[in-house]
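@channel anyone free to eyeball this complex?
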Amino acid sequence: MADSPTNKLAAEEIMNAPILGPGHDFASVTDKISAIVLTKRTPLWWIVGFLISFALTSVLMVAVTVILVYGVGVWGIQIPVGWGFAIINFVWWIGIGHAGTLISAILLLLRQQWRTSINRFAEAMTIFAVSCAGLFPLLHMGRPWLGYWLFPYPDTMKLWPNFRSPLVWDAFAVSTYATVSLLFWFIGLIPDFATLRDRARNRPAKIIYGLLSMGWRGSAVHWERHETASLLLAGLATPLVLSVHTIVSFDFAFGIVPGWHATIFPPYFVAGAIYAGFAMVLTLAIPIRRVFHLEDFITIRHLDNMGKVLLATGLIVGYGYMMEAFMAYYSGNVYERFMIINRMTGTYAPLYWMLIACNIVTPQFLWFRKVRAKIGALFTIAMVVNLGMWLERFVIVVTSLHRDFLPSSWGTYIPTRWDFATFFGTIGMFLLLVFLFIRYLPLISIFEMRTLVASEEEKKAANV
Amino acid sequence: MDSDRNSAAQPDVDISVLRESASAGGSPRHWRGLDELADTPEFQNFKENEFPHGATDTESKLDRRELMKVMAASAAFAGLTGCTKLPTEKIVPYVKQPEQIVPGKALFYASAVTLSGVATGVLVESHMARPTKIEGNPDHPGSLGASDAFSQASVLGLYDPDRSQAEIHDGRIGSWAEFQQELSSALGQEKGSGGGGVRLLTGTVTSPTLGDQIGTFLKAYPSAKWVQYESVTRDNIREGAKLAFGEYANPVYHLDQAEVIVALDSDLLTSGPGSLRYAREFARKRRVEDTGSKMNRLYSVESTPTATGGMADHRLRLKASEVEGFARLLAREIGLSAVMAPAASPVIPSSWIPALVRDLKKYPGATLIVAGDQQPAIVHALAHAMNQALGNFGKTVHFTAPLEVAADNQWSNIGQLAADIRAGSVTTLLIVGSNPVYDAPADLDFKTIIPKVAFSARLGLYEDETSALCHWHVPAAHELESWGDARGYDGTVSVIQPLIAPLYGGKSELDFLAVLNGQAKSSHDIVQGYWQAQRTSVPRFDAFWEKTLRDGVVADSALPVKQLMVKAGIGSDAPAATAQGLEIVFRPDRTIYDGRFANNGWLQELPKPLTLLTWDSVAMVSPKTSERLGVKSETAVELKYMGRTIVAPVWVMPGHADESVTVFLGYGRTKAGRVGTSAGFDAGWIRPLATPWIGAGLEVNKTGDKWALASTQTQSTMEGREPIRIATLDQYQKEPTFAQTDAQTNPLSLYPEVKYEGNAWGMAVDLNACTGCGGCVVACQAENNISVVGKKEVRIGRHMHWIRIDRYYEGGVDDPGTYHEPVMCQHCEDAPCEVVCPVAATVHSDEGLNEMIYNRCVGTRYCSNNCPYKVRRFNFYLYSDWDTPSLFGMRNPNVSVRSRGVMEKCSYCVQRINAVKIDAEKQDRPIKDGEIVTACQQSCPSEAIVFGNINDPDSAVSKLKAKNRNYKLLEELNTRPRTSYLAKLRNPNPEIEKAAVV
Amino acid sequence: MAQIFHHSTNTIARVSIYGAVILIGILGYAANVVNQTSYVTEVHNALPQPVPFSHKHHVAELGLDCRYCHTSVEVSSSAGMPPTQTCMTCHSQIWTNAQILEPVRASYRDSTPISWTRVNALPDFVYFNHSIHIAKGVGCTTCHGPVGEMNITWRENTLYMRWCLDCHMAPQKYLRPKSEVFNAFYKAPSDQETLGNQLMIDYKVKKLTDCTTCHR
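replying in thread with the prediction:
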């Protein structure tokens, strides 16, 4: 494993950046990580953060109530812009989720060891993001209480959903994605639950972690089955990374709206998703690493690698934008051409240029190793990309719709306070879950880190 | 007074008032509530300052009751998914079932709807004795089966919950009996003086019966005076005739005889008596069957852009005050040498008048010159003179005795009345219908003088501005509730018969007069009695009477043609010097007229032709003038005229005359009801007795505020796309297939061809005929239970109309060409909406209808996003009023009332299709062409919309679609619409055309 | 290290895991069953009426034709409910002082309508037309069941969309000769299919499954 290509590269590039800080043995790793969870004292910053995100979540709850009572009219949506923040946020969150699955599944299959320390909370992030995303398809419906009509079941009407509609595919894609990710995550957690169970001091903790660990005893059989299960799920999750956002992109690509109706959507949505996802991972990883003093586990090398992924996917996304513009020009189609010109000069032009700045210009700094090595810079770039990706969805959804075919029905979409409430509300809910996660679950996979310890020692042995 | 007249534009924000109005407005889902909320001045400003695009005032209404109601409503529709039980219903049959009435079958009654006294014949659809829909009466000369927005909307007027429901005596509930006593005692005191102190104020009366009744009253009180008054007066027409012929006369035009028509600031195609017929005759003269066909030619000279001006082949922009000058120059050129040239002749392209005259001379006796209602008498006189000179009398125009029972100069009479009241010589004032406190010339100040009268009583539909100041208010019966009669544009009499007993116990005008005359007869007996007296000649009166009621018109009651000669020397007097300064033009509003329809949600939300504005009146200025004044649309300005000021929003109107401002009457009502009160501003406040229509010396000052307006179309140009394809007649003759495209001639598709056996419904819209009057929009609204959403929602872009009339400008902004295009669901054969609906709530029928199933819709709005025509409408809130009982009776029982969160759209009136299909099936016969008529088609005066079976090559619609002008909207998308359009043609005068820039 | 769980926990765990799966299955099935009970569908529930009107008596024993009371069934969408007048045509002569008929007489006396409880109800967004079904050879009892045997009227069928479609997709299963439409005791022949197919041709019966056939 030591001779895997990235290790070689890394060895040359960042000599002093191992994927696990020096001087760690099994015990120390276990102590360090489990301590975070099992400590009695809840740090003050945690309480503060928790309360803030809780407040935001309550905003979401209010918004949801208002929407259910009065209808989606409280949003700024209208004719022609029938989709607003709801769909924008949906795509944004789903996109963010992708990084987790990519890291935990694909990198696992590719035996990328450096993923080990970040995959746990990357996966957690996936699940939280997907649950945020999952709210929107339901909320944005005119009659959410009939949402189940999207699923085929033997009803009294002798009717089936319209299987030609991308929204139906969405329903399946997203629910599958959520289920698989959750399973994968939980399976991964079992051995660590066991560790916590064994190390927990007070009885309630013992029982809770005990139940969660499902009687894990760490026997060879357990490990063997665990390994198989993870690999299977990884195999199952891998295609999802591509399929889910491809299908999400179909929501647009299948429409005839200029600015939606493009074959390039699937690839560049997937790239965009991973782009956004890694940005979010960085956004979480950097502060966590800081507050829990996990510099030894999430090393400069992790950040460096993620920076590279960010740059790569960013370039793909940039290519996507260029292609959109080029095809519009090349098609000679009056509507397509108008669409792109309208994006650049129309009502929402500022947002378009902001998006270009965030998603294409900013990441270029990542060419420089210095920048990738500078935590602050990396964090800033990640934040900028998060924003940029949200803007991308805004531009796609709103600018395309607000001026389509017949000039007579052009209109302007102005989000209302409830649009923002739902958006920031879900951010709150996301953070809330994250806070709970980092407090009560091992945010780095203990047992996998132990394997790293092993491999590091092998390496030492080899060097000597 | 000033302040509350102006209230619509008080700039200061008062949150508490806003909150009050919010709670007063009640639920956000009620269009009345919504609107009330949206249009209080406080809200206006609050909205502007706080959150510009509203829709966020919800929490002010977040109370439990609301919640329960919405939930209940939602649950009701969530129903029928298999695990929800239906609520137990009751069936309540008759005790004695009336004949004719068959549950589930509609009945139609012939009646008439009047506007300013002039009748339009209608057929009223009635379900279980509830009138639900108005159609034109084909047997009525003024309708020919068509109907306008006003008559369509009268159904809503009937059920309006704001109508007054009780006699009011000095602010307290009174009673009819009590009123009769007080009235008779009041009249008793007048008896001695022969009624010297009695004044009877009515609107224009054309009703022979009512006229007869008033006559009887005046006989009993010889010195009493009867005053007829209309704010939208036709004095100029009457006086014009008097000037020309020395007597009052009523001109009747025959556009079907006219090859060249000159409209002098006249909107004869879409407003005024007979406009429905005129539009039809005009359109028929423009039917272009093939390249061989001819077209008539319309010249329009006007200040304020009108639909008629939009139809014109040549439109000349002149200040309203300059039209007289134009008329004089034209008259001279025609050969009326006596006519004096204007002092300062207006700026007219040199080629214009000579070319026009050559054109007129080309068709002796087949031309027509029409003067607009707002133009001074002299212009009408000149028009008559010119028509005579061109030999048009008896051909394209004939004259009859006036429609009015007693024609007179209404404005001088109202002035006299005010003077009398001031002088204290009026002791008993009886007001039947009219609302002088709101719409009489402001300087007469009825608001302060009416209380001076010892005994004042008012019969009115609403307890409005005038009623509030009278001692007695008597609720009036709606026209659909009362017996009566009235004359049409050519004098034909229609008998008005009630469709339903007065909902709110109102009294008809005849009931009221019966009391004045101390008769105990019912209004039915009075009308019947009158005609029995008139038709002594007919052998069997009851047969005649039955026929009259069935046909809706009194046989041969049209006024006889009068042979009149224009007096010599018309226009030989010195022309009035054109006044200096900014010109102000007053016009009746196109949808709420003089304010009498202010509380009618359908008309308030009907986009006004050309501006497509809703819920508001504006001060129109031309682009040039707006630049000079430094204002733009939605700028609030202070209009100062004759020492009175009013705050109004500016609307920059392409094609408007420069240095002229048009304001519209009818808005700024203070006691109209939930819908109309304080919507817009009251232009009447600066309208003095002296200048009813056109004045000069207006001052315009910016207030610095913004006045938000709600127009349904913000983009006015076609952006190089060709939704409307236009050519001149000879361009078309050179290139007959100019409207066709490759996409149309050889369509490709990846989808397998679908064969439609049997019926295949389709529609063709002749853009050459559409005047953009908007009648179809209201007809559709009435037929399909379409909700009204209120100004705020319209502004966001959530109006619900299934058919909209797109308006595009072409050419320079100062004087562009104006084009209309009705757009409803195109019923695409390859419909983009259908593929994307996740629950198959919109699908295709065997007959090619694009069906929308409300109760299956979950409201993802994907279909609307994917609809290139954007004809789908979404219930963002619960727009349908589920709480006001009086409105339930109004709804069409054959169309579902949509709930919140579902999409809706034009269905080609599928309920009508099914009804006819079922009848045909039962009689085992094929459906006849033209048997199925959609609501829009039925109302259209110019026969622009044709619906039918495109599988039948002989159907009218197939024939139209076969024409080479036929094209489909956005056909390059290959959606294969079933609706297609016939390209618009213009017929310009080559001589002028080459001079002007196209 | 001390045991946290008794070893029976393992069994409990297994049981609960498999149990959960099975339970969900059972619940789903149960819901389905409940949905078909007359409690939900209201099928075969004889609803209380102001007057215990017996179709059995009037149709079976007296042999009244459906159309005697439901007059508009051939011409209109609604079959029509008889006005009190109709009841009184006979009951002014017979059973003139029967206690159970008092509401009828009362109604006629002070002309206050009788308010019956609806038995066969469709939601407001369904537009059903009796006349066309009659015209195409759909018998009254095909939908309304053995009215001739109902002492107090009940709903014979769910009237769910699924049920409507059952006939709209295969009318031949139910059509009968027009002469038999009002026969409350009609028994379908053994070779209904062949008869049905023949009638479909004779009566030009189409299989109407367009949504707007019933929903507008």
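from a first look: Chain B touches chain C at residues 79-80, 82-83, 85-86, 88-97, 102-105, 843, 845-847, 849, 851, 853-856, 894-897, 907, 910-911, 914, 918, 921-922, 924 (CB under 8 Å).
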